[in-house]
Amino acid sequence: MAETPEEHVYYVFRRQASGAPLTEVGSVDAKSEQLAKIYAKENYARRKRTTNLVVVSAEDMHEIGDDAAYGGALDKEYRNDEGYDVEGFPA
């Protein structure tokens, strides 16, 4: 007897209009990429105007490690006004 493939999680991203960013709208559980596309279309493109959908297997998504700096990675302290002495400055 042949084994049936197990279901995998696929994240679904949608673009509402041409030039709009992709936004995550949810996920589907499917046994293949082809089924994931069908499920995504049925669940996430029927009610709202959608120019395209993208499905990505959860296995293909990789988190950036903890050693990466988020925000403020560029040294631009000169943009902060914390270093300016305003005492004695005429108002």
Question: How is this fold's topology laid out?
Answer:
Layout: E1 8-15, E2 23-30, H1 33-44, E3 52-57
Antiparallel strand pairs: 1-2, 1-3
Notes on the protein architecture:
- This protein is α+β, with helices and mostly antiparallel strands and 91 residues long.
- The protein has a domain at 1-59: Phenylacetic acid degradation B (Ubiquitin-like (UB roll), Roll), CATH 3.10.20.
- 13% of the residues lie in helices and 24% in strands.
- The protein is built from 1 helix and 3 strands.
- The chain has one helix spanning 33-44; strands spanning 8-15, 23-30, 52-57.
- The chain has a 3-stranded antiparallel β-sheet with strand order 2-1-3, covered by helices on one side.
- A hairpin with a 7-residue loop joins strand 1 (8-15) and strand 2.
- It is elongated and about 70 Å long.
Comma- or semicolon-separated keywords:
three-stranded antiparallel sheet, 24% strand, alpha+beta, elongated, 91 residues, Ubiquitin-like (UB roll), 1 helix
Rg of Cα set: 23 Å
Q: Report the average pLDDT across residues.
A: 81
- From the helix content, strand content and strand pairing, which structural class follows? alpha+beta
Number of H- or I-type helical stretches: 1
Assign the CATH superfamily of one domain. Phenylacetic acid degradation B
The SSE string, one letter per element, is EEHE
Spans of 5+ residues with little confidence (pLDDT < 50)? none
By CATH, the topology of one domain is Ubiquitin-like (UB roll)
Q: How many strand units?
A: 3
Sheet with the most strands? Answer: 3 strands, antiparallel
How far is the N terminus from the C terminus?
A: 85 Å
Helix proportion: 10-25%
Q: Please give the CATH class of one domain.
A: Alpha Beta
Q: Can you name the CATH architecture of one domain? A: Roll
**In one word, what is the shape?**
elongated
| Major sheet: arrangement of strands | 2-1-3
- Quote the beta fraction: 15-25%
